[in-house]
Write a structure and sequence with these properties.
heterodimer; A: 2 domains; seven-stranded mixed beta sheet; six-stranded mixed beta sheet; B: Beta-Lactamase; globular
């Protein structure tokens, strides 16, 4: 039987030692001073400095803690009661005597296939699910070269082809990206899990990707295993878990026209385009290759394949862009914001949402966010946390948008949450939120009660 | 106080992509440094900093800048005043994540400010 009102307790330990084994042992030494606090959930998040070394760190933790559910990922930073760091590793020990906690993960061929398999393994009637998966998984150098070659091939085939044929090539490229676990589609994955759980519990999608991507990253951790580009699910069965999702945008309209009006008030519109796309592959904008169509408007420069592979190897491949394409959903009247820049050496533009339900009329826009500093943590504001453990997910774009000002989050969060919290800095989170948990008509609705955007979203759990 | 200062420098030096970090007096005298042993380009950088740091700080002060970044060969040199009498210099590799390193450097300056005047 699950009791009401008992809160999860947590202790966070942090290290940023250069050597991965020293770092893991440093965390263990600190954790041994925890005065009889026996965890029944372990969170482990680390930045890219330990890329490729995560498994040996997890082995050390496994040896120390034994068979306790564990989840985590490689992220860009973390916020905890003592500090806010963008380099290092954090180990969070959690204990909740009245929650049934389990972690399950899979790493199968094909993203959708993996999601379906994992969803079939999960049961949750009360509480919530927190999924961890990459938003984009950068594979090995060989696989990356293959991805570029496929991109070149299908882009070349599209030149001069009929729209039907272009869509066929787009569909094949999208299929390849799914089969080879490159692009993960948060709304599609969330829908699979929501359906499996009877649309009854909230599901948060922790979309993991780094601001500077590199080969074989990001990584997902599940029960002390680095499952690379797999999907992991933390299932918390407990009656009074509160799940909050919010974004920095205004509300969607009742009709698409109203949404378009809201968007034109909020964003600075640069240009409108007629787009051709198939699933999660953008084929053209006004008949031109997507980046070619926008490059003179957003100062994107062409990238060479050789440079890309070199930069991916060194981890010098920056994904930040202030510009976005706005897609308007014909079913939900929501908007999907896609950051666009010169990321690929080929013409097609694959990304991480299936936009089949979206209008072909897309808009290139940007938004000033200077006055939205607090909106990025809006999920933490306006709720009485009541000493519960707050696990939150913050959009790493805040670093590009606000620079050193982000340190103010450290104090603000502490003021709001006290001592029992842990937050990660990674890509914008996604969420399936049943109607009763929704605070307003979020603009970022990408499917029925499913929310996602390339930037500007935040989510938290109060356990 | 000394432990905190040294610890802050150690933690900064442990960050991925950081080649060296040095705490200078504002007149260019080094107080404490973290370097990976002998490196010709780092020595050149340090000589240059000793000579010019007070002038750079004067310019930064005039322009109201909290930090300045120079590019020198394959390194980025990030200069950030850490108190009224000290300045923190971080040398990062070209491919390092500048945004995240800049955040960590500014975090270190805040901690140093607590330790020294």
């Amino acid at each position: 039987m699950l009791l009401k009102g008992v809160k999860t307790k947590s202790i966070t330990f942090f290290t940023n030692k250069k050597d991965h084994e020293q770092a893991a042992n440093d965390l263990i030494e600190k954790a041994r001073l925890r005065n009889g606090f026996n965890p029944n959930l372990i969170l482990f998040y680390a930045t890219l400095k330990y890329n490729g070394k995560y498994q040996s760190m997890l082995d050390i933790f496994h040896k120390e803690f034994g068979e306790i559910p564990q989840i985590g990922a490689s992220v860009d930073g973390m916020i905890f009661p003592e500090d806010m760091r963008t380099d290092g590793a954090a180990l969070v020990l959690c204990r909740d005597d009245d929650a049934q906690i389990s972690v399950k993960g899979v790493n199968e061929k094909g993203v959708i296939n993996s999601a379906e398999k994992l969803a079939g393994m999960i049961k949750c009637n009360n509480g919530c699910i927190v999924l961890h998966f990459p938003l984009v998984r950068v594979p090995s150098v060989l696989k990356s070269a293959e991805f570029f070659a496929k991109g070149y091939y299908y882009s070349k085939k599209c030149r001069g082809a009929t729209i039907e044929n272009q869509k066929e090539y787009g569909r094949k490229f999208a299929q390849y990206c799914d089969n080879d676990n490159i692009f993960y589609l948060p709304p599609t994955i969330l829908e699979i899990f929501a359906k499996q759980t009877g649309y009854s519990v909230p599901i948060i999608g922790v979309n993991v990707m780094h601001t500077h991507v590199r080969l074989n990253s990001p990584s997902i951790f599940c029960n002390f295993k680095d499952i690379g580009g797999g999907i992991a699910a933390l299932v918390i069965e407990k009656q009074d878990v509160n799940t909050i999702y919010d974004d920095i945008f205004s509300e969607k309209g009742k009709t698409m026209e109203e949404t378009r009006r809201n968007v034109s008030n909020e964003f600075t519109i640069i240009k409108e385009f007629k787009a051709i796309f198939e699933k999660n592959v953008l084929i053209s904008l006004d008949g031109m290759a997507p980046v070619e169509a926008v490059e003179n408007l957003i100062y994107a420069t062409e990238k060479k394949k050789e440079d890309l592979l070199g930069n991916l190897e060194k981890g010098n491949y920056n994904l930040n862009t202030p510009y976005g394409l706005l897609f308007f959903n014909k079913k939900t009247n929501g908007v999907f914001l896609l950051g666009i820049g010169s990321y690929y050496p080929f013409e097609m533009f694959p990304f991480y949402v299936n936009v089949s339900d979206y209008s072909n009329d897309v808009v290139l826009a940007y938004e000033f966010v200077e006055d939205k500093f607090e909106s990025f943590i809006s999920g933490l504001i306006g709720s009485n946390h009541n000493d519960k453990f707050v696990f939150f997910f913050l959009d790493v774009l805040v670093v590009a948008a606000f620079g050193e000002k982000v340190f103010e989050y450290k104090d603000k969060v502490k003021q709001l949450l006290g001592e029992n919290y842990f937050g990660i800095l990674s890509c914008s989170p996604s969420a399936y939120i049943p109607l009763k948990y929704q605070r307003r008509n979020y603009l970022s609705e990408a499917g029925k009660n499913i929310f996602f955007s390339s930037g500007g979203t935040n989510a938290c759990l109060e356990i | 106080m000394k432990i905190n200062l040294e610890d802050t420098l150690d933690q900064l030096y442990d960050i991925e992509g950081i080649e060296a970090c040095m705490l200078y007096r504002i007149d260019g005298v080094p107080i404490t440094i973290r370097v990976p042993g002998y490196r010709e380009h780092l020595l050149e950088t340090m000589f240059w900093l000793e000579k010019h740091i007070s002038r750079v700080l004067g310019e930064m002060n005039r322009e109201g800048l909290k930090e300045t970044i120079f590019y020198f060969r394959n390194s980025r040199i990030l200069i950030a005043p850490s108190s009224r009498s000290t300045v923190l210099v971080t040398v990062a590799k070209a491919e390092a994540n500048q945004q995240l390193i800049s955040l960590e450097t500014l975090r270190a300056t805040k901690l140093i400010e607590i330790c020294v005047t």
